[in-house]
């Protein structure tokens, strides 16, 4: 764990203190990601027929799997000078908040339209069916800050692409985007890579 006075350290000092601290489960002894895949429940035909819904609530309820997922997502960035983690509502708040804590970084909530109280920047994004809008506070990131974007899952990539647009428009440098689950058949991770984003994922499931 970072020291209690981590907030008073520079980003590099904070990252160094994390890199030298003991993770909950040492990375050298991590089991293969098959264990993480097994901790994720699949619900057929939710929320509509033909969709295999990848339900992370079972992973979240399993302390070991949850801790492993957070450590694995954070580990590549332990010495990367990350200022902020941006998480996408709603499941991205759970994963992103924990990763931010692990990196001793700040957290930026990217929310669906109308939920944030202060002045916002807004972008429309495409979902599998239709479009929606997401927002971020205008002062949530400063120009040049290094941000890791985090969500539970990337499918078509429309949601993550919207978040990348918001963050870049505000001058943030996107160090990477990290997801527990990739649905590679839907092409989202490749779409983000095409935007010049370094994409990290832990578990891939075939199909929708
Ligand atoms: O790559 P995409 O095709 O854009 O899909 C991925 C997004 O879909 C899910 O969120 P959802 O919109 O269902 O919101 P929720 O987290 O509030 O359930 C998931 O948590 C991602 O944010
Ligand atoms: N198959 C899926 N399971 C869970 N969340 C999703 N978001 C988009 N596609 C999804």
UniProtKB/TrEMBL annotation:
<comment type="subunit">
    <text>Homodimer.</text>
</comment>
<dbReference type="GO" id="GO:0044209">
    <property type="term" value="P:AMP salvage"/>
</dbReference>
<keyword id="KW-0328">Glycosyltransferase</keyword>
<comment type="pathway">
    <text>Purine metabolism; AMP biosynthesis via salvage pathway; AMP from adenine: step 1/1.</text>
</comment>
<dbReference type="InterPro" id="IPR029057">
    <property type="entry name" value="PRTase-like"/>
</dbReference>
<dbReference type="GO" id="GO:0006166">
    <property type="term" value="P:purine ribonucleoside salvage"/>
</dbReference>
<keyword id="KW-0660">Purine salvage</keyword>
<feature type="region of interest" description="Disordered">
    <location>
        <begin position="1"/>
        <end position="24"/>
    </location>
</feature>
<keyword id="KW-0963">Cytoplasm</keyword>
<comment type="function">
    <text>Catalyzes a salvage reaction resulting in the formation of AMP, that is energically less costly than de novo synthesis.</text>
</comment>
<dbReference type="InterPro" id="IPR000836">
    <property type="entry name" value="PRTase_dom"/>
</dbReference>
<dbReference type="InterPro" id="IPR050054">
    <property type="entry name" value="UPRTase/APRTase"/>
</dbReference>
<dbReference type="InterPro" id="IPR005764">
    <property type="entry name" value="Ade_phspho_trans"/>
</dbReference>
<dbReference type="GO" id="GO:0005737">
    <property type="term" value="C:cytoplasm"/>
</dbReference>
<feature type="domain" description="Phosphoribosyltransferase">
    <location>
        <begin position="64"/>
        <end position="184"/>
    </location>
</feature>
<keyword id="KW-0808">Transferase</keyword>
<dbReference type="Pfam" id="PF00156">
    <property type="entry name" value="Pribosyltran"/>
</dbReference>
<dbReference type="GO" id="GO:0006168">
    <property type="term" value="P:adenine salvage"/>
</dbReference>
<comment type="similarity">
    <text>Belongs to the purine/pyrimidine phosphoribosyltransferase family.</text>
</comment>
<dbReference type="GO" id="GO:0002055">
    <property type="term" value="F:adenine binding"/>
</dbReference>
<protein>
    <recommendedName>
        <fullName>Adenine phosphoribosyltransferase</fullName>
        <ecNumber>2.4.2.7</ecNumber>
    </recommendedName>
</protein>
<dbReference type="GO" id="GO:0016208">
    <property type="term" value="F:AMP binding"/>
</dbReference>
<dbReference type="GO" id="GO:0003999">
    <property type="term" value="F:adenine phosphoribosyltransferase activity"/>
</dbReference>
